[in-house]
Amino acid sequence: MLSEKSRTYHDPLHGAITLRGDRPVEALLIRLIDTPEFQRLRRIRQLDTAFLTFHGAEGSRFTHSLGVMALTRRAFDGVVQNYPSLESHRSVVLTAALLHDLGHGPFSHAGEEMFGSQHEIWTRRLIQESSIAKILNSFAPGLLRCLEQVFTKKYPLPLVEQLVSSQLDCDRLDYLQRDSYLTGAQYGHLDLDRIFMALNYDPITQRLVVTKKGLVAIEHYLTVRYFMYLQVYNHPKNLAARFVLSKIFQRAQVLLKLGQLEADSTVTAWLVNDPQNLSIEQYLDADDTVFMYHVHRWQRSEDKILADLSRRYLDRDIFKATEISLKSRSERESLKEQLQKRLIEQGFDPEYYCGVRMTLTKGYTLYQQGIEIQTTQGLQEINTLSPLVQTLSQPIQKAWLVHPKGLL
């Protein structure tokens, strides 16, 4: 049954995102957005701990997911104008775009590092086992199976999965712009008009490709991505904030085993189980709000380590990340040993107050299959045509020693 009402979401980047209730696919999207499973994404920050570095980085997975759906609709409709036969895939590509992040857990990617959860697996499980499945099956019996194919990159029309997950997908187009806007960084400005004009469909390979005249726009997009990772996502303060947060929950796990931790059933389940083995209810009950409530309580814990780390995170008394990339292995070990000794002298446990972390920045990878450019000689991989992209393909790895301020 179709909804008679349309729905408009006013997005700071994309303007009014309107879904018409008299159109079957868009009515389906409205129903999916209104589910508790999707609404939960409002309570999960897109950029996990980055708000401690960039105070505006408060956007949610909910907002990002709507943006990805809007961009996917725009890109897909542009292709369909020239290839009307692709219209039959509309429900698959738009629902996949909307639901692609459904499985994210507390603290987004930082939470995956801490607990070992994998949002891709949970996205597929939630669309199969939660109330989402009933809605999808009521729309079309085969839709759920099609989404599974998209998320496992087995969909018969490669174009669909490329729009959702590839080196040039609408997920990246949204988060690069959105994260730039929210953090105040000036690196993430994209020329979406030129990018969408450059997107094309190759009937032979059934893949998303780029016209030759769009090469410069895609070079710019990859350059933007490179700088956003270098200056925002891999910012040393982000690294230090994630470190402190991970140590809080590492300490909580130790205390829970000793019977010395106060935690509700949701957080307890996450601390004692492999997140991939949690029940649907246990997974959906977890979000940033639930976990941060515990951090707030733990700042008054009788355990000095847990209390101190929790207070530091809440008060933004974050550790420092000192770059040690240019030092040899022996120099790094020596520096770490000196730091551990100083920590012990000051009454700190080195297990929780220092560590080495690595960051990797790479502007372009093939990612199963890269970006293909239409030329008079046929389709060519972008890094064979662009010296700039060849340079962006070179990884930059950095090493950081994380520790309390004033010790190095």
What's the layout of helices and strands?
Layout: E1 7-11, E2 15-19, H1 24-33, H2 36-39, H3 61-82, H4 90-99, H5 108-115, H6 119-129, H7 131-139, H8 143-151, H9 158-164, H10 170-183, H11 192-198, E3 199-202, E4 207-211, H12 215-233, H13 236-257, H14 265-272, H15 280-284, H16 288-298, H17 304-315, E5 320-323, H18 329-345, H19 350-353, E6 355-361, E7 372-375, E8 378-381, H20 382-385, H21 387-392, E9 396-403
Parallel strand pairs: 4-7
Antiparallel strand pairs: 1-2, 3-4, 5-9, 6-9, 7-8
Helix pairs in contact: 1-4, 1-7, 3-4, 3-10, 4-8, 4-9, 5-13, 6-7, 6-8, 10-12, 13-17, 16-17
Explain this structure.
The protein is of the alpha+beta class. Among the domains are: 7-186, Orthogonal Bundle (Hypothetical protein af1432), CATH 1.10.3210; 235-318, Growth Hormone, Chain: A (Up-down Bundle). The chain is built from 21 helices and nine strands. It has helices at 24-33, 36-39, 61-82, 90-99, 108-115, 119-129, 131-139, 143-151, 158-164, 170-183, 192-198, 215-233, 236-257, 265-272, 280-284, 288-298, 304-315, 329-345, 350-353, 382-385, 387-392, and strands at residues 7-11, 15-19, 199-202, 207-211, 320-323, 355-361, 372-375, 378-381, 396-403. A four-stranded mixed beta sheet has the order 3-4-7-8. The protein has a three-stranded antiparallel beta sheet with strand order 5-9-6. Strands 1-2 form a two-stranded antiparallel sheet. Strand 3 (199-202) and strand 4 (207-211) form a beta hairpin. Helix 4 packs parallel to helix 9, helix 5 packs across helix 13 and helix 16 crosses helix 17 (304-315). The longest helix is centred in the N-terminal third of the chain and has 22 residues, at 61-82.
